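Sample intake sheet
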Amino acid sequence: MGIINLTPDSFSGDGLLKNSASQFLERVKRKTEQMLKEGADLIDIGGESTRPGAKPIKAEEEIRRVIPALKVIKKNFPKIPVSVDTYKPLVAKLALKEGADIINDITGLRNPEITKIVAKKKAGVIIMHMKGKPSTMQKNPFYKDVVEEVYNFLAQAIQKALDQGIEKDRIVIDVGIGFGKRVRDNLELIKYLYQFKSLGYPILIGVSRKSFIGKILRKENPQERILGTLVSLVVSIINGAKILRVHDVACAKEIVKMTQVIFSLC
């Protein structure tokens, strides 16, 4: 899953609105084309930065960023599945109307309206765990047992989704690396990711360029965290991750292939 940030303030420094809005849609097209050439199977677009400390934006502004980009992708690459990263019902509703295939909800369907919209449209959904909200989630997060707490949250969110009519084969789960987690919490979730397989749903992992890697490797620049990202991805694949949400598609594609080949040997 290739990440396309439609923001001026992405933590990873690759937001397509960072410099100028004049060529915004052309940059979206080129970025999508590049990721597909590198081997992306689907694209995830987001119009609101959810980095730690980020301030929320209004739905109208998010729509202004997301919907034109979505239309460009669907027009030029109609066969590629597109996920829209949003927790706002209005954004989700309009995105699905314009052809989005999946809603990637970082709040784990806390808003029941999102659940109803996804169910009605028979769309896919990614249910993620986040402690708190982006603006405050990294202010002293604490868990007695992070794996157990995240597992229980996801189990409950899955049941809510099923109860509202979302079909089982349209659900993906995400443990929410970096969302209200300390460095150790993130490492534990990656190490024990295999425990989440018992929930019975595909696992998405999002470790790409994240701050826990920077803290361990002392890499302040997110774009210098690729090697740490790749190691984290390999461990995640071994432990059951089925979807890798990444900025660097070509590198991720190669480590997927190598890992699969090694583990396919008799």
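Comment: The two ends are 29 Å apart (CA to CA). The chain has a mean pLDDT of 94.
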